[in-house]
Amino acid sequence: MAIALPNTQHDFERTVSALRAQVDERLGQWLPMAPAQDAIATAMRDGTLAPGKRVRPLLLLLTLKDLQQDAPVSEAGLDLACALEMVHAASLFLDDMPCMDNAELRRGRPTIHRQFGEDVAVLGSVALLSQAFGVAASAEGVPPPTRNQLVRLLAQATGAQGLVRGQYHDLREGQRARPLEAIAHTNRLKTCPLFTAAVEFAALIADASVSCTRHLNGFATELGLAFQLLDDLADGLSAQQIGKDSGKDVGKSTVVALLGPEAARQQVEEHLARADQHLIEAGIGDGHLAQLLGYFATRAR
Amino acid sequence: MAIALPNTQHDFERTVSALRAQVDERLGQWLPMAPAQDAIATAMRDGTLAPGKRVRPLLLLLTLKDLQQDAPVSEAGLDLACALEMVHAASLFLDDMPCMDNAELRRGRPTIHRQFGEDVAVLGSVALLSQAFGVAASAEGVPPPTRNQLVRLLAQATGAQGLVRGQYHDLREGQRARPLEAIAHTNRLKTCPLFTAAVEFAALIADASVSCTRHLNGFATELGLAFQLLDDLADGLSAQQIGKDSGKDVGKSTVVALLGPEAARQQVEEHLARADQHLIEAGIGDGHLAQLLGYFATRAR
Q1: Could you read off the pLDDT of A52-91 as tens digits, one per residue?
Q2: What single DSSP character describes residue B247?
Q3: Sequence-distant (≥ 6) Cβ neighbours of residue B99 within 8 angstroms
Q4: Is any Cβ of chain B less than 8 angstroms from the Cβ of A194?
Q5: Residue of B45, B92, B99 for testing the chain A interface, max A β-carbons within 10 Å
Q6: Cα angle vertex A131, ends A217, B126, to 5°?
Q7: Is residue A2 part of a domain?
Q8: For residue B289, is it within any domain?
Q9: Taking CB atoms and an 8 Å cut-off, how many pairs form between chains A and B?
Q10: Which UniProt keywords apply (chains A, B) (predicted)?
């Protein structure tokens, strides 16, 4: 970027870049390069390592940093961050399929089923999910009862009350005209399970208090809602700019469609303000997560 | 049945029926009835509770009985048996989809995607998998480190080196003419992961020795191969008799297609004999699993 940034924001961006690189390196170890004829392993690796923001891993790692006085990232933290990204990638494989959103482009590349076939998309997704659970059950240095809790949390975030429910709502309810409340509900179901899992993973391995965990959960929920709105706002942009199919939401009832972009931006700012309040009440109002909110606020403008 | 059975076989059949009823009752609790508009929960319940042999749960519970001097089934045993059946059902949802085997009938009913749509089949399958992992991480009365091992075992059985690999092999290699060795390899990959997971789950919660566990694993592998061959033999029967699409294997290279039914039956008996030898070496040569082998031998004739 050409403009000079204030020091703290510059530091924050360096921290984020370094963490993202660590996540990608570790993901590459969990999902090693395979011979081309092993389409499942190739799809798992390519689909997960495709350029992305790594928001969920970052959320986990930044929360850990805030809870642990900026200590270096632990093996367990990094592995759990990878588990979240695997689950996220698995959900994208499936969401993009013809029986779901029927998308052609994702992260600037043809979607997994277009590259490898629908069977590989489905099986690769199952394999990624399985691996994520295996990673959570093996988190280095984490006490066994806590690992049990991590697995249970991941199962909730992924299953019938988590991502599955969100995607189903979006598919079946998204086409109808709906009141704002119902749209917000779908958004919450779709984006929040992995956002809240990320902060709760961090809270578990940092042994945070119940009250702190509750506020982190509130923070992640508000951030997830803001994130989904920003995603809907971006849907108006061209495919080149955002690297995935645009216009997929045409005809879908989104907050943006209902209220227009200005009011949606307003809502983003309200969610971010509430997220900030939760951080203050969690006792980490001036850490990395607070800076993350600043980054989102910039995106909203 | 009209014919009088010898007492032990009669007792065995009663034991199996009782265990199957316990599994179905517990599955019904894990997958409670949902309002019809909740298609995901309805598909999960209907697809898992549809009439079936419950071979994998039975394998786990009979192994437990053999290892624990016929003690009543524990909560943990029953829940883990349910977890295996959930994973099995999830794999059937996916295997039947148009991008895989494109089956219309399963367990005497229309396949899940035909009843509820492909999106529900995919999402229901993910939800069942997630729930199975959650159940394994919560197994009542099992020490936390053992629960983590259960989760890791399940992840291996389900993932890229387990069911996923077997199904992919079957899809991509099954159409080609292949030597017997390659067919046996695919059969092993397809059926054995959950069979070996079943006995290893039992060995873990019964705290069996390493040697016993190794022989149980060998037993389950041989049984799985026999089971797959019996399945291929049954594929020649009509849909009414076996309750799922028949003739799906026409053009596929199976042992039955390559050697004819007689030689396939011969192979079944060889696998069962080797399975029996493993039981003897595991020190449980005269328990319920040995009787299970007798039942399979009868099916082969």
Answers
A1: 999 999 999 999 999 999 899 999 999 999 999 999 999 9
A2: S
A3: A117, A118, A119, A122
A4: no
A5: B99
A6: 70
A7: no
A8: yes
A9: 148
A10: Isoprene biosynthesis, Magnesium, Metal-binding, Transferase
